[in-house]
Design brief:
Distance between the termini: 38 Å
Helix content: 25-40%
Shape: globular
Keywords: ATP-binding, Ligase, Nucleotide-binding
Largest sheet: 8 strands, mixed
Strand order of the largest sheet: 12-11-8-6-7-14-15-25
Structural class: alpha/beta
Number of strands: 32
Pfam families: ACAS_N, AMP-binding, AMP-binding_C
Strand content: 15-25%
InterPro entries: Ac_CoA_lig, ACAS_N, AMP-bd_C, AMP-bd_C_sf, AMP-binding_CS, AMP-dep_synth/lig_dom, ANL_N_sf
GO molecular function: acetate-CoA ligase activity; AMP binding; ATP binding
EC number: 6.2.1.1
Number of helices: 20
Bound molecules: 5'-O-[(S)-butoxy(hydroxy)phosphoryl]adenosine
Radius of gyration: 25 Å
Length: about 675
């Protein structure tokens, strides 16, 4: 039995949702009367044309009855950028700080008000239009955590262009594939950025990606817009002659500052239908090819705004900080759209938790008097090892809510976060969601719900979770199985860009009538939901999702490798780490130089976060007679667990012994 933690008086006093009963009442209403519930929230926002009553939500989740679709607020017309900026300024908040920006170097910081942000967004939006970008065009963004990144996303939203942010830790191959898949017209980047003491030359990666898009995928990006960031940043390490590190091609490259020079800070928004696309974001797919998850306008706005308000209990004078990179969905929803929709003040942090020292996070909390902090278990675990003095020497009493996201939080990390960062008086919200869900779907709520370390808690308003067994039978009450949802909430993705078939087959074909998350979950005696992890061939390394197929296909690109199988094994900081079984071609001798080369190759092709921890040269793989690799057995071998159970379905059971013997 795990201990139950009740919200502290410190949290309840201020909470807009101060009791469990209040949550239950609102939750029930959100399911019984979705139109009433969400249209009440919609009233706060600006609609050029209001929605047609009676058509608030329509959907089909049952593949046996026809195509899957989800529509919210059909007929309504709006612009999300206007709602985030113009609306707040008109309400008199133009001088409110939208972001405190904290650079990689502690000497680099700035702030921006809602008014100034709108001016910059309009100028850049006009700049994009001058390059021929309009409604429905795709803009790829490969940027560090700087204010221009937010400006760029909102400028796209203002003119109806679909942004596709690619995390700036991805390789040039990954960027090329993503730009080509969505046929991006424009790429926006910066010359580079510091990450701790490491200098990243982003423009160089972009040069390579633009070339690869052309030669490998037959796609030409018309314009590459480059922010000059390094010249403004304090050097954090060795800085050579930056400009010699990348190319400049006058035909497509243009400096950001030159593009916006002379652009007006007025920009007529593009009026968008409720279901017009807002952005797409690639996430790993189990076949290896990334999936372009597409989100639309009105539903995403409503849901992002509402989750932020209740899950973080954001109040007018609070200072909120989400540490996630804008390259992931967490950064989209909870660094950009949701805080601005609530006229919040946020911290945006460019740097690393370890630079210049291992207490940087806590120094930032103290500096800006952060009230809500939102980070990942992997970050917490990697900071725990430096001792609590790093935390306790800072004044963290401003904190009220501590968020966690990306993977189940292990109880040890939960307790550390709760005791030392939160001084036993903050609420921890363990938010379960996905790129596909657009916003939190399972979570605890500060002030309202009790907490159990490691449990994601309860469904958010409008969300109807179900647990199914292998046969698709609903498990009522306590039990464990597949986590699915029986109806849409406003921000669920609408399709995979250019591939509705794949959308239907990946998410809706396994259990007709349900959206299938790919995760397992358990409901305990008290009704808490615990997410138990992926049940498909997906891996979660430091909160980054990737597929076994993706890594395996990269490994087999090496001409010495004939076959590869990748599994994950537990890792104290990363959560999971990659353990790769590699079969070499006949005549090739195992050698540490091959191990090195393969690790480097995975880094280069996918990104540094995908670097394998172990490469094991294997004589063969445990396969069934029909040829399916039994990853269950490989996972046991990776951790040295000899209790592997039944091997009778293996074509060659002796392989198991050989694999244990060949462990590095
Ligand atoms: C997968 C989604 C949306 C957040 C960033 C990751 C895992 C995420 C939790 C949590 C248990 C979690 C799931 C999910 N996950 N948050 N609080 N508890 N598991 O977005 O890359 O789309 O990954 O991350 O496995 O399916 P993503």
């Amino acid at each position: 039995m795990s201990r139950v933690f009740q919200p502290s008086a410190h949290v309840v006093e201020k909470s807009r949702l101060p009791s469990l009963d209040k949550y239950k009442e609102m939750y029930k209403n959100s399911l019984d009367n979705p139109e009433e519930f969400w249209s009440e929230i919609a009233k706060e926002f600006y609609w050029q044309t209001p929605y047609q009553p009676g058509k608030f939500v329509s959907y089909n989740f049952d593949i046996t009855k026809g195509d899957i679709f989800v529509k919210w607020m059909e007929g309504a017309v709006t612009n999300i950028c206007v709602n985030l900026l113009d609306r707040n300024i008109e309400k008199g908040h133009g001088d409110k700080i939208a972001y405190y920006w904290e650079g990689n170097h502690p000497d680099d910081y700035s702030r921006i008000t809602y008014r100034k942000l709108k001016d910059l967004v309009c100028q850049f939006a006009n700049g994009l239009r001058s390059r021929g970008v309009g409604k429905g065009d795709r803009v790829s963004i490969y940027m560090p955590m700087i204010l221009e990144t937010v400006v760029c996303m909102l400028a796209c939203a203002r003119i109806g262009a679909i942004h596709s942010v690619v995390f700036a830790g991805f390789s040039s191959d990954s960027l090329a594939e993503r730009m080509s898949d969505c046929k991006a017209k424009v790429l926006v980047t910066s010359d580079g950025a510091w990450r701790g003491e490491k200098l990243l030359i982003l423009k160089k990666t972009c040069d390579e990606a633009l070339e690869k898009a052309k030669t490998k995928h037959d796609h030409t990006v018309e314009t590459c817009i480059v922010v000059s960031h390094l010249a403004k940043a304090s050097p954090c390490g060795k800085l050579g002659d930056i400009q010699s590190l990348y190319d400049w091609n006058d035909d497509i490259d243009v400096w950001w500052h030159e593009l916006i020079e002379n652009q007006s800070n007025d920009c007529e928004p593009e009026w968008m239908d409720a279901e017009d696309p807002l952005f797409m974001l690639y996430t790993s797919g189990s076949t290896g090819k990334p999936k372009g998850v597409l989100h639309t306008t009105a539903g995403y706005l409503l849901y992002a705004a509402t989750t932020f308000r209740y899950v973080f209990d954001y109040q007018e004078k609070d200072v909120y900080w989400c540490t996630a990179d804008v390259g992931w969905i967490t950064g989209h929803t909870y660094v950009v759209y949701a805080p601005l929709a609530n006229c919040a003040t946020s911290v945006m942090f460019e740097g690393s938790p370890f630079y210049p020292d291992n207490d940087r996070y806590w120094a930032v909390v103290q500096k800006y008097k952060v009230t809500q902090m939102y980070t990942a278990p992997t970050a917490i675990r990697s900071l725990m090892k430096f001792g609590v003095e790093n935390v306790t020497k800072h004044d963290l009493k401003s904190l009220r809510v501590l968020g966690s996201v990306g993977e189940p939080i292990n109880p040890e990390a939960w307790h550390w976060y709760y005791n030392y960062v939160g001084s036993e008086r903050c609420s921890i919200v363990d938010t379960f969601w996905q790129t596909e869900t657009g916003g939190h779907v399972l979570t605890s709520l500060p002030g309202a719900t009790p907490m159990k370390p490691g449990a994601a808690g309860f469904p958010f308003f409008g969300v109807a979770p179900t647990i199914l067994d292998d046969n698709g039978k609903v498990i009522e009450g306590p039990g464990e199985g597949y986590l699915v949802f029986s109806r849409p909430w406003p921000s669920i993705m609408r399709t995979l860009f250019g591939n509705h078939e794949r959308y239907q087959s990946v998410y809706f074909s396994k259990f007709p009538g349900y959206y299938c998350t790919g995760d397992g979950a358990r409901r305990d005696e008290d009704g808490f939901l615990w997410v138990t992890g992926r049940i498909d061939d997906m891996l979660n390394v430091s909160g980054h999702l990737m597929s076994t197929a993706e890594v395996e296909s990269v490994l087999t690109e090496d001409s010495r490798v004939s076959e590869a199988a990748v599994v994950s094994r537990p890792h104290p900081q990363k959560g999971e780490a990659l353990h790769c079984f590699v079969i070499l071609n006949a005549g090739v001798q195992p050698d540490p130089s091959i191990t090195d080369a393969l690790k480097k190759h995975v880094r280069a092709r996918i990104g540094a976060f995908a670097a394998p921890d172990a490469i094991q040269f294997a004589p063969g793989l445990p396969k069934t007679r029909s040829g399916k690799i039994m990853r269950r057995i490989l996972r046991k071998i990776a951790v040295g667990d000899t209790d592997i159970g039944d091997t009778s379905t293996l074509a060659d059971p002796s392989i198991v012994d050989q694999l244990f013997k060949s462990k590095p």
